[in-house]
Amino acid sequence: MPDQRDLGTMARGRTLAEFQREFPDEARCAAFLFARRWPEGFVCPGCGERRAVALKSRPRLYECLDCGRQTSLTAGTVMHRSKLPLTTWFWAAHMMATHSNGMSARQLEDQLGVTPTRPLGC
Predict the structure, then answer these.
(1) Which residue of 14, 29, 58, 121 shows the fewest CB atoms closer than 10 Å?
(2) The model scores a pTM over 0.85
(3) Helix residue ranges, H only, the chain
(4) 80-96 per-position pLDDT tens digit
(5) Rounded distance, CA 104 to CA 64, Å?
(6) What are phi and psi of 81, to 5 degrees?
(7) What's the rounded Cα separation, in Å, for the pair 97 and 119?
(8) pLDDT tens-place string over residues 33-49
(9) Which residues of the chain have pLDDT under 70?
(10) Could you tell me the CA-to-CA distances from 92 to 36, 44, 62, 97, 105 in Å, in that order?
């Protein structure tokens, strides 16, 4: 499990190049989220125990070795159940935080090369 001392911060004011060096891949983004979610190490939300294993078959999912509960690294966030890579989410957050006037959904769509999904019922 990641060591929080090795992880950077998502401070405003860094360039996109600096940000991409800090968070170049899924593993680095996941390590950042893990350290923020569980700064003292994994804690099962079901039983409170600290023993877990990362499931190799399902990225970002941890299973408690005491009660068997599976917990997603992104549970309770806007990233939960998303098919987008964590790097895309992180870049979107960086762009939103560093653009002084904010950024429209259309601008994010264009910059990240993603397409919106239709809301249910449309």
Answers:
(1) 121
(2) no
(3) 16-22, 26-37, 86-98, 105-112
(4) 988 899 999 998 888 88
(5) 40
(6) 65, 10
(7) 26
(8) 999 999 999 999 999 99
(9) 1-13, 117-122
(10) 18, 29, 25, 9, 10
